[in-house]
């Protein structure tokens, strides 16, 4: 067993539904894990849903699942990574089930147990308070809202040493999820139409991915004008302000020769929006959901429209791929200027975490990134 390490982390407690920067203790490193000194961690909507009790995550514990950092130590069973390696962190997968072996690790049979149970797959936790109380962690195999994190090695994607982690936007969850939905789940083709419902960080990344694929037209639907303006700057050809447009589906058909869109992507998780998305599809059109619902978890769909329209509606999680394949591809696109996700990011020192989380909740920040090196 490794000697305990004292570090600082953002701890969520059930009675608060908020965070506090506290001292925590890392107590051991398993053979399939690495110890990472975190440089940055992104704030994802999924973290907010867990804080609010909508997604199941035991507490008190440490969230955060979009980390970047440098490896300090590797477990005895880790041979493809070394101390000093720079890594981007994503989700944990077993590597041995049918889905993992077919490079669809986002559908690992152990995904929930490995990423949202609050513990390792054996039920243990590497985190405790200075007084010895257990803290839940291993959120997406990493719990990277911390100066140091015990990370399952399957989460880590090695980066080139020349990459500046302080400026590289984390891509290990939301941005990867939606780019993979465009590339893999929908497989958007050049010259085909796509509508994106909800253009926060996830939806705007979909706009960039669709532009890279050569989609046209690309329609962005949202309630916030500033985000619609940014969608135009990043590649959308048309924008629809759903606050001022009563019939969003009709507006989409107006922009697509009255036929609807060939592809559509919901990034909101809202049942009413999903229904509008499916209704806006053209014959044999395909729609996908990547947004996690915060309220209603079911949606009423017109079966006859699906049946006679040959329409497809499908879910997509974590890029519908392998993080070891998709993240390097996105990094390559980023270096080419084809995936400029830095335009979405607002940077915060960890000491300003309350402001960062508030800015995400109220929409002031599209994508907030916390910096840990000053601690």
Describe this structure in words.
The structure is a single chain. This protein has 375 residues and is of the alpha/beta class. The strands form three sheets. Strands 3, 5, 6, 9, 10, 17 and 18 form a seven-stranded mixed β-sheet that branches. A six-stranded parallel β-sheet has the order 13-12-11-14-15-16, sandwiched between helices. It contains eleven helices and 18 strands. It has two domains: 220 residues, Quinone Oxidoreductase, Chain A, domain 1, CATH 3.90.180.10; 141 residues, Rossmann fold. The chain is 26% helix and 26% strand. Helix 8 links the parallel strand 14 and strand 15. Helix 4 packs parallel to helix 5 and helix 5 runs parallel beside helix 6. The longest helix has 13 residues.
What is the N-to-C succession of helices and strands? Answer: EEEHEEEHHEEEEHEHEHEHEHEHEHEHE
User: What share of the residues does DSSP label as strand, in percent?
Assistant: 25-35%
Helix count equals: 11
Roughly what is the average pLDDT, rounded to an integer? Answer: 95
CATH topology of the largest domain: Quinone Oxidoreductase, Chain A, domain 1
This entry's quaternary arrangement is single chain
CATH architecture heading of the largest domain: Alpha-Beta Complex
Supply Rg: 20 Å
Shape call: globular
The number of domains is: 2
Output the CATH class name of the largest domain: Alpha Beta
Largest sheet: 7 strands, mixed
What is the terminal-to-terminal distance? 26 Å
Low-pLDDT residue intervals, each spanning 5 or more residues: none
Number of strands: 18
Structural class: alpha/beta
| Helicity range | 25-40%
Report the CATH superfamily of the largest domain.
Medium-chain alcohol dehydrogenases, catalytic domain
Cofactor: Zn(2+)
GO molecular function: oxidoreductase activity; zinc ion binding
Pfam families: ADH_N (PF08240), ADH_zinc_N (PF00107)
Family: Belongs to the zinc-containing alcohol dehydrogenase family.
């Amino acid at each position: 067993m490794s000697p305990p390490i004292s570090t600082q982390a953002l701890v969520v407690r059930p009675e608060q539904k908020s965070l506090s920067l506290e001292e925590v203790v890392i107590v051991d490193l398993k053979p399939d894990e690495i110890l990472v000194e975190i440089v940055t961690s992104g704030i994802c909507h999924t973290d907010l849903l867990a804080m609010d009790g909508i997604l199941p995550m035991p507490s008190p514990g440490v969230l955060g699942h979009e980390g970047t950092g440098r490896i300090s130590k590797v477990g005895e069973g880790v041979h493809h990574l070394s101390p000093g390696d720079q890594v981007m962190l994503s989700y944990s997968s077993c590597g041995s089930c049918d889905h993992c072996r077919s490079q669809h690790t986002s559908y690992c049979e152990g995904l929930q147990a490995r990423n949202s149970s609050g513990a390792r797959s054996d039920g243990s936790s590497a985190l405790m308070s200075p007084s010895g109380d257990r803290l839940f962690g291993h959120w997406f195999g990493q719990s990277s809202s911390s100066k140091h994190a015990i990370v399952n090695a399957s989460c880590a994607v090695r980066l080139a040493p020349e990459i500046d982690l302080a400026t590289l936007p984390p891509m290990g969850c939301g941005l990867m999820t939606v780019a993979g939905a465009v590339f893999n789940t929908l497989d958007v083709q050049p010259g085909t139409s796509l509508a994106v419902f909800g253009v926060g960080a996830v939806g705007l990344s979909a706009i960039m991915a669709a532009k890279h694929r050569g989609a046209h037209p690309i329609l962005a639907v949202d309630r916030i004008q500033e985000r619609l303006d940014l969608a135009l700057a990043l590649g959308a050809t048309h924008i629809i302000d759903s606050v001022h447009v009563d019939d969003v589906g009709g507006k989409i058909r107006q922009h697509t020769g009255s036929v609807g869109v060939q592809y559509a992507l919901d990034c909101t998780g809202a049942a009413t929006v999903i229904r509008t998305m499916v209704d806006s599809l053209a014959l044999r059109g395909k729609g996908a959901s990547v947004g996690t619902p915060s309220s209603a978890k079911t949606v009423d769909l017109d079966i006859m429209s699906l049946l006679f329209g040959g329409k497809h509606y499908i879910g997509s999680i974590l890029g519908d791929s392998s993080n070891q394949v998709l993240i390097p591809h996105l990094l390559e696109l980023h270096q080419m200027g084809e995936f400029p996700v830095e335009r979405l990011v607002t940077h915060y020192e960890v000491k300003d975490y309350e402001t960062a989380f508030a800015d995400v909740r109220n929409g002031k920040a599209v994508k907030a990134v916390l910096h840990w090196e000053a601690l």
